[in-house]
Amino acid sequence: MNAAQLQSLPRWAALPDREALALVSMGIERHFRAGAAVGAPNLGDSAPLLIVAGECKLLLDIGDLSLPVASLTAGDWWNADSAFDNAGCPLSLRALTDTRAFLIPKEAWASLATRQAALSLHLLRQALAAQLRIATALAPHAARWQHTAAAKRKPTTKDLLELGMNKLIAPTTGRDAQVQRDVELVGHQGPAIAAAFKIQR
Amino acid sequence: MHDSPNDRPPIPPAGASEPAEQALPPTSRSGTARGGSFGFAQDSIGHAHQWLVRGQNPHQAEPDATAPPAPRGSASVTPSSPMPRMGAGPATAAPLPPRRRESSGSFHVPPGGPRPEESSPFAGVALERNSRPGQPNTNPGVGYPRPVTPNTEYRTPVSVGIVSSALAGLPIQRPRVLSAHGSGTTPNRGPTSTSGADAAAAVLALPDIPVYASPIHPHDVDVQLAFEALFQGALAPRDAAHVAARMWRQTVPAGRAVYSATEPADFADVVATGLARIEVMGPAGMVALLPLRSGDLVGLAALVGDTVHAETVVAASDLVVFCLQRDEFHKLCAEAPLLAQRVLAAGLSHAARRIRAQTERMLAYAHLDGHETVTTNAAPEPQGSRLGRLFSRLAGSKDNR
Fold first, then answer.
1. Cβ–Cβ < 8 Å for B316, B254
2. How far out from the chain centre does Cα A177 lie?
C-alpha cells in the first residue's frame, strides 16, 4: 500500500503526504480471502488492524452461533484498543469479500506518540470513532438481549440488596412489562446475578 | 475592580447634576475609552452613579433650562432610560451603544438590539447573573440544566475579576490578564513543558465558563481521583493543572440526563463523583446498559468530530461531572498534543471496556437462555493440524473425567 491509497480511504483524505508516507512505512499489509477469519476474539497479543479494501463482518461468537454485529469496510478499524490494552477485542472478524488490511504493530504506534504527535492524534481519533461505531452497533443487540433476559425471571429484593444493586435498578417502561417483571438488572453485576440464579436453580 | 478609591468618580453635591456630569472622568463617557474590565466597571459605575443621582434628586423632575446642552458624543453620560420623573434625556440623547463581547464575558446583546431592561444604566453590569435579560433565572446556583443554546451565556474568570482557581496551583508565573477583550488566540507549544503543554499560554486562552458551572482545581480530591482513574495512573501535576484549566465542574441531579441521544455533541464529560448509567432505546423503552463511575469518560462523540451523541447518559445519583467542551479539546490538541493523546487513549479504553462489558453480559444472558454448552471463558481453540486438535481434545476430555 502506498500513501495515495491510504489517503483515498474515507476520513483519511486530510492526512498530509509526509505523515501518510510515514504511516505506510511502519505497517504491514495483509490479504484475506473471502470467508477467512481476519481476527479472532480475545487475542491478547494482537495489533490494530485497518481495513483498506473489502468488507468484513464483526461477529459475536456464542458457542456454534455467530451474531453479526456490524459490517466493517474500508477505513474502519478492528482491535484498535489493543494499542493500549492487552485484553483484546471480544468480537471476531470474518472477511465477507477479499480483503486487504493494514496492520500497525503496537511498538510502531507507541513510537508515533512522541515522534509524530499529529499523526498519532489522527490515528487515535480514527480508532476512537471506529470503537464508538462498534459500541453503537452493539448497543441495540445488548438492549434486546437484556430486555429478554429480564423478562424471563425476576430477582428478589434480597438478591439485589446483597449484590449492592439497589441503586442500579431502572424501571422498564414498556407496556408489555409484567408486574412481577418490572425491574431489570443494570450494571456490571448482571453476570454475577445471572450466575447466582443459575446456582439457585 | 478599582485600583484605588481615587479612581472613583467624584460624588456630586445634591441638586447639582450637570456639574457632576462635567466632573466625570472621560472613561465614564465611553465604554471603549479604556479597554478592559476595569474600564467597563468604571464606566458602569459612572452610569449607575448618574442614574442614582438623577433619580434621587427632586430638582431633576423638570428639565433644567440653564444647563448647557449635552455635547454630541457624550450621550452615554445622559441616562438613556426614561425615568418617570425625568423629562430630559431620552428625546434628545443618542442611545447608548450596545456593548458587545465577542467570546468572553457575560455581556449579552441579542441580535435585535438591547432589550428594554438594557436601557437601564445598569445594563450589562450584572457580570454574574444567571439568567438572560428579561428571562427568569432557571439555574439558581445548580449546574443543571445545561442550556446548550446559541444564546448560552458565558463568563470568563478574568471578566469577573477572578483568575480561575483551577490555575491557582500552577507552578508557573502567571501573567495578570486584565483585558476583557476575548480569550486570546490558540497558544503555541511551549518549550519548557514535558508534555508539550505551555501552561502560561493556556492562561491566555482560558475557557469561557458557563454561568451555571464552576472551574475545577487540580488539587481537589475529586479531581485527583477522577484523573487518576481516567488516565489509569498518576498524571504529572503540571499536566493535571493544564487539563483541569480546560474543564469545568457541573452538577446533575439524580434522574436527570447529562446528555441525550441525538443531542448535539458539544461536550465530553468525565464522571467525578456519583453514579450514572448509559441508556439506549430498547424494545420497550430506554434500557440501561452500563454503569458509570468516577473516571469514566463519556460523550466521546465530541472528541472525534461526530455531530450528535448516540447514547443517553443519565445520573443514577447526584452526579458531578467535569465538562470538556469540543473547542477546548481542540485547543488542548494544539497546546499539548501528548495530553490530548492521553485523553483520546482514555476514551479509547473506555469505549473498549464498554464493548467488552456488553459482550460479556450478552454471553451471560446466553447462559440464561439455555445455551448450556456456551463457555464464556473458553480457551481459544488450539492451533495446529486436525490430528493435533483431536489429540488435544481427547486430552481435555480425559482431564475432565
1. yes
2. 30
Residue in B361, B373, B375 to test binding to A, most A beta-carbons within 10 Å: B361
| Structure confidence by residue, pLDDT tens digits, B150-167 | 445 555 544 333 444 444
- CA atoms within a 13 Å half-sphere pointing along the CA-CB vector of B82: 7
Q: Any residues with CB less than 8 A from the CB of B278 and at least 6 apart, and which? A: B288, B289, B290, B292, B298, B311, B312, B313, B354
- The reply to whether residue B351 touches residue A81, judged by beta carbons under 8 angstroms, is yes
N- to C-terminal Cα distance for chain B? Answer: 84
| Whole-prediction pTM | 0.57
Q: Which three cell numbers stand for residue A120?
A: 498519532
Q: Does residue B190 come out as left (phi exceeding 0), alpha (psi in the -120 to 50 range) or beta? A: beta
C-beta of residue B89 within 8 angstroms of C-beta of residue B121: no
- What is the enclosing helix (H) or strand (E) of B224? helix B221-230
* Chain B CB within 8 Å of residue A147 CB: yes
Give this complex's ipTM.
0.74
Cβ distance B351 to A84 less than 8 Å, yes or no, reads: no
pLDDT tens, residue by residue, B39-54: 344 444 444 444 444 4
Measured CA to CA, the distance from residue A89 to residue A70 in angstroms comes to 14
- Which residues 187-216 of B are in CB contact (within 8 Å) with A? 196
Nearest Cβ partner of A191 from B277, B291, B360?
B360
Cβ(B400)–Cβ(B392) under 8 Å?
no
- Are B367 and A198 within 8 A, CB to CB? yes
Q: Are strands A65-72 and A99-103 parallel, antiparallel or unpaired?
A: unpaired
Contact list in A for residue B355 (CB cut-off 8 A) is: 89-91, 131, 134-135, 138
C-alpha A154/C-alpha A157 separation (Å) is 9
Quote the pLDDT of residue A66.
79
Yes or no, beta carbons of B291 and A197 under 8 Å apart: no
- The minimal CB distance from A117 to the residues B305, B338, B380 is found for B338
Q: pLDDT tens, A21-72?
A: 888 888 889 999 988 888 888 776 678 889 999 999 998 887 777 788 889 9
pLDDT in tens, A131-154: 999 999 999 888 887 776 666 655
Give the integer Cα–Cα distance in Å for B387 and B401: 21
Q: Which residues of chain B have a CB within 8 Å of the CB of A195?
A: 364, 367
A 52-111: CB under 8 A from B: 60, 62-63, 67, 80-81, 83-85, 87, 89-91
**How far apart are alpha carbons A26 and B260 in whole angstroms?**
40
Q: Which amino acid is at B186?
A: T
